[in-house]
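Write out this protein's structure.
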Amino acid sequence: MKKYAWIAILSFTVGLLLAGYLFLYLPEKSPAPPDVFATAAPQASGPNLFAAPAPQEKATLDFVTIAEKIGPAVVRIEAERNEPSRSMGFGDEWPFGDDFFNRVFPQPRRGQPESNTVTVGGTGFFITADGYILTNNHLVEKDKTTRVIVTTLAGKEYDAEIVGTDPGTDLALLKVKVKDLPFAELGDSSLVKVGEWVLAIGNPLGMEHTVTAGIVSYKGRSIDTQSYQDFIQTDAAINRGNSGGPLINMRGEVVGINSNIVTAGFGSGGNIGIGFAIPSNIANKVIVQLKEKGRVVRGRLGVQIRDLTEGMAKQLGLKSKAGAVISSVEPDSPAENAKLKQYDVITQVNGEPVKNSDELRFKIADVQPGSKVNIVVVRDAKEMKVTATVDELEPEPEKGQIASPDKDIGVSVVALTPAIGRRYGLKTTEGLFITEVRNGSEADRENLAAGMIILEVNRKKMTAVRDFEDILKRTASGDEVILLVRQETEARSQDFIVSVKVR
């Protein structure tokens, strides 16, 4: 009996020693968590250079780890540009933060002096190891900005090239000639949920690399109907200077680009817990086009649309208020050519349902000009299908040329064609269309402006830029040329004569 007892005790002791060895000296080796902020070598360029990575599970990180990994990718941006002075009594602050007024109402107000050179500060962040930077368009607008300087967390300064800008989404792509840079990864913003934690990193009020935390307050917020907006709203502290910086989830992915703030009142410029970020999924689409074309090309249907109410849906014989009702159809537009009419309700585009007017605008914008789009509409309570050929929304402005490099009056012009006339809503189809009048030039002194049409020079009809060039070459410097100019408005067209000195 004693023999069996000793065997049992010995077996138990050996078992304990073996278990201790397994747990203490042979721990399971788990793979290290993925590095969300890369110091990896840049991938070869291709059409999907900025596309979102393949979906994969990532560990949830803490605030400190995220700040340490994403922080080095964030840069301070200083843009030198020409800005019209404000003279409406609100000071330098607007209730919606950085340059909101200029973006919603881009036309200069009366009584403003000519442009001044100012420096605008903001934030951006590297999205590739070879120097591409994502930021806001309103910081580095192409027509105004003369120089862009970026400063890294390490204190290094670089002159940045503006690769492309997109006012429609308020995004811009910059490039510095540096390699092996730390960069942040764009995540999938469609997975963002209201209530989840997010971090913002930027340079608010000139305070460099400030990290703030909050939650996602709302998704799909829109401020105005003129831009392509689907904002992520957050209560993470965002102030003036945060514009262009990243909004980061707890996996260390950038899910938004900070763009707007709502402040407590005129002149305060302070955070009250309402900030807006452009979703990363929108940025992914925009970045590819900015890199390839320098701008974003969008489709146009040519309709004015609005959301449906319960009452409208009932009156129009609809089962729900999903869709977008056409309030007007633009003449000679893809919509008119497709026989779309006022009161038609668009419910599907290329087989995908349309929830509201904003969703319809996004779907049509994603269609490349010249492509056909299949549309389902409800007309008089009956469903029907139409096909439209989409054209381009807001084509790139015509770049005029100076008629003669040696003799000049201060204008750039292009030959007016029926296509240009339709683009700018002009009835005139011949002449020279003024695309630019340079400040301080002879033409500027005579109140000529972009959009006017030169019909005749020295009583000779103008049909090509070469016609104008020939006359300028034969005119001595200091002598004058007589122009017959037309200015068209919606109400009427007016012709007038102006005499301009040649320089």
